Amino acid sequence: MHELSIALNIVEIACEESQRRGNARISAVYLKLGALSGVVKDALLFSWELACDGTPLAGARLDIEEIPIAVWCPQCAAQREIAGPFEMLCPECGMVVTEVRQGRELEVRALEIEDG
Amino acid sequence: MADISTPRMVEVRKNILKRNDELARALRERFAESRVYVASLVSSPGAGKTALLESLLTVLARRYRVAALVGDLATENDAARLARSGAPVRQIVTGTVCHLEAQMVEHALQGWNLEELDFLFIENVGNLVCPASYDLGENLRMVLLSVTEGEDKPLKYPTIFNTADVAIVTKMDLAAAVEFDLDAVTRNIQAVRPGMKIFTVSAKTGAGLEDLVGQVANLRTDC
């Protein structure tokens, strides 16, 4: 369970952005969360309120966009999405794939800001 | 003029672990400058990280200058145990934190002259989930799996296996007793991390240790 410390990192990033914008009020934080990031969505949402408590982010919404794993298949010469269960095989041609192109994201994508 | 009370979206695009990643990058540069090869060990609790590390330190210390950092939620038992190898060892007590972070490694290294080391081992907290997200600046991440854990562990914890560089199957001396299926484990590891090198060892009998030590020593020479 490291989701609380991840949530605290998100709060820190959002607070920095708020300060850079004259302490603008942040009403929502938009995340990209890859299936290979090692972070569990539900645990992160569970930690969110606690992490925001007593900070300028209190009451802000956390919007999580889950990013599936995508790999590069050299045989198809195309990027392919892998749906669970996790196996490093091209879902189209069955070739073993090693290059992960998407799914490690752990990123604050955008903030919803209320000026004034 | 826009209504100032209307919420607006601003793009941020910031990696949440950027601070850890930046610190890990700085550590990696420091390790490279000091020519110290850094390997970390991750596994579930009880897979035999400390036993393997004790053997690795003892064998490598005959030819190289070695040291270790060892992470645990509580107690300094592991550091005391590893110190028997004669190598300098420091305990990182993480308290409630279930994984090591780059900043903890940096802090634990204070006062050590890295120039005086050939190898540094970092034993992570026993946990197959959280350590996967945190780069520690290591050159090599070794994931351990003991024969008593069940052959499907790589499928249950794909992220940690996918982010590791080599896999080490431990407690091979117990393999027959628990009817361990090495072929199944190999298949499952290859499914989540194709091409990953797999070692089989027993810290108790010493089987497979020489091969592992030799490969780790070669990796240092190559880097």
Plain-language structure description:
The complex is a heterodimer of chains A (116) and B (223). Chain A is α+β, with helices and mostly antiparallel strands and 116 residues long. Chain A has one domain: hypothetical protein PF0899 fold (2-Layer Sandwich), CATH 3.30.2320.80. In chain A, 26% of the residues lie in helices and 34% in strands. Chain A is built from 2 helices and 6 strands, in the order H-E-H-E-E-E-E-E. In chain A, the strands form 2 sheets. Chain A has a 3-stranded mixed beta sheet, with helices on one face. A 3-stranded antiparallel beta sheet of chain A has the order 4-3-5, with no helix packed on it. In chain A, strand 1, helix 2 and strand 2 form a beta-alpha-beta unit. In chain A, helix 1 crosses helix 2 (41-52). Chain A is elongated, with a radius of gyration of 17 Å. Chain B is α/β, with parallel strands linked by helices. Chain B has one domain (18-209): P-loop containing nucleotide triphosphate hydrolases (Rossmann fold, 3-Layer(aba) Sandwich), CATH 3.40.50. In chain B, 34% of the residues lie in helices and 21% in strands. Chain B is built from 8 helices and 8 strands. Chain B has helices spanning 18-33, 49-60, 77-82, 102-108, 153-156, 158-163, 182-192, 209-222, and strands spanning 8-15, 37-42, 66-72, 89-93, 119-123, 140-146, 166-170, 197-200. A 7-stranded parallel beta sheet of chain B has the order 4-3-5-2-6-7-8, with helices on both faces. Chain B starts with 7 loop residues before the first strand and ends with a helix. The mean pLDDT of chain B is 93. The chains are: A alpha+beta (116), B alpha/beta (223).
